[in-house]
């Protein structure tokens, strides 16, 4: 028997989609509401869930543990309301749950809106075992308890489902801004580091946040500390630390960044998890003029994740530098099919079409790029592009 366990609060817009995705796959649904005022509990009940109520304990881990205590299945699937289960994953997940020594199944999760890392791995499907409990602030996880349990009962196995199982929209830029995730992450990880100095997971999250917000010195220090403390078998943590340390080093120390990206790619991880390092290394090698390896790396990204617009855009830039105009045009068009408002892709496509002799296509492309920049609140860039493009092709023809 498989039970769904969820904690929710004010998720009326998303909850029905989430629960509908597990209908027919789970045998029971337990939803713990922590104080909604938008009809979330009623939606959960209408979808067939058993609804419980809990005053918010101030931390995700005890809330998740409360939900875990309420389920009765042999297996537990944990979702957030902004996630849903892909139907293609049902059969492979059932096959893994039937294996008698499998304790936990890591799930590949597609990250909608993530520009560089469109997949992550989350430990959300596991046997209901008294030794498995949630820990950590903000990004609560069962990994710590599972590691302890494996030390006590080494016959258990942790496996990964090769089929992407979940889709997650929580990292779409507009949702991140609405929910102020960065501020909440900072507060939680600062508290985590105060309780567990040098913790690799907290160093990775807070270090990456510091780098992204311009605090590179502290970010690099945190990432290096986390890397020094991360165990050799902590593959996901080591990858994240290496990736963000390379991002931080790239502006001033490109050679060091290349070495760090290579270390990240050497880790035995699913290729979809390490797409960010592969994509970034390809872009860095493009700037250094190593076009052949840049093309190989970026082409591998488009093979693994053809739905990623940035990969096709970067491939277009590389192919253009290699003098392969038709391939560059094709790559830019793939990027625009996936992200029609990508002004840089539109501008580069127009320039490539001009070089290929397609004057009408170039004219239309420049016009679209200018219109996109204006619509996106970039009038100065639009004027500059109109001036440069107008010197090459008549835009008013």
Automatic annotation (TrEMBL):
Broad EC category: transferase
Pfam families found in the cross-reference section: Glycos_transf_2, TPR_11, TPR_16
Record-linked SUPFAM superfamilies: Nucleotide-diphospho-sugar transferases, TPR-like
Intervals holding TPR repeats: 309-342
PROSITE patterns reported for this sequence: TPR (PS50005), TPR_REGION (PS50293)
Top-level taxonomic group: Bacteria
Record EC number: 2.4.-.-
Entry GO MF terms: glycosyltransferase activity
Key word Transferase present: yes
Residues annotated as domain Glycosyltransferase 2-like: 3-137
Name the UniProt record assigns to this protein: Glycosyltransferase
Organism (species): Cyanobium gracile UHCC 0139
High-level lineage: Bacteria, Bacillati, Cyanobacteriota, Cyanophyceae, Synechococcales
């Amino acid at each position: 028997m498989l039970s769904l366990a969820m904690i929710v609060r004010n998720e009326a817009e998303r909850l029905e989609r989430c629960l509908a995705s597990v209908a027919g796959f789970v045998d029971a649904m337990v939803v713990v509401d922590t104080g909604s005022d938008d009809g979330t509990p009623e939606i959960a009940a209408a979808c067939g869930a058993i609804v419980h109520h809990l005053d918010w304990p101030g931390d995700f881990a005890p809330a998740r543990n409360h939900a875990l205590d309420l389920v009765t299945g042999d297996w537990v699937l944990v979702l957030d309301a902004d996630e849903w289960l892909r139907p293609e994953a049902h059969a492979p997940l059932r096959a893994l749950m039937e294996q008698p020594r499998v304790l936990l199944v890591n799930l590949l999760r597609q990250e909608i809106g993530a520009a560089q890392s469109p997949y992550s791995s989350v430990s959300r499907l596991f046997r209901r075992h008294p030794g498995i409990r949630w820990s950590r602030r903000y990004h609560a996880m069962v990994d710590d308890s599972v590691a302890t349990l494996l030390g006590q009962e080494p016959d258990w196995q942790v496996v990964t489902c090769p089929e992407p199982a979940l889709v997650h929209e929580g990292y779409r830029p507009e949702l991140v801004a609405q929910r102020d995730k960065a501020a909440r992450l900072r507060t939680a990880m600062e508290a985590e580091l105060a309780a567990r100095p040098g913790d690799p997971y907290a160093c990775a999250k807070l270090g990456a946040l510091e780098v992204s917000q311009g605090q590179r010195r502290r970010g690099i220090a945190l990432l290096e500390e986390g890397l020094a403390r991360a165990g050799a078998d902590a593959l996901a943590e080591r990858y994240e630390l290496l990736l963000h340390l390379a991002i931080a080093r790239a502006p001033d120390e490109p050679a060091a960044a290349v070495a760090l990206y290579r270390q990240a790619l050497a880790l035995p991880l699913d290729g979809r998890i390490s797409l960010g390092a592969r994509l970034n290394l390809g872009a860095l090698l493009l700037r250094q003029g190593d076009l052949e390896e840049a093309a190989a790396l970026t082409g591998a990204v488009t093979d693994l994740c053809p739905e990623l617009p940035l990969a096709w855009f970067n491939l277009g830039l590389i192919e253009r530098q290699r003098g392969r105009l038709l391939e560059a045009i094709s790559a830019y068009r793939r990027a625009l099919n996936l992200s029609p408002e990508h002004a840089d892709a539109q501008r580069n496509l127009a320039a490539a079409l001009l070089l290929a002799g397609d004057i009408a296509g170039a004219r239309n492309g420049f016009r679209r790029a200018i219109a996109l920049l204006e619509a996106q609140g970039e009038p100065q860039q639009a004027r500059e592009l109109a001036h440069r493009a107008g010197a090459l092709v008549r835009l008013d023809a």
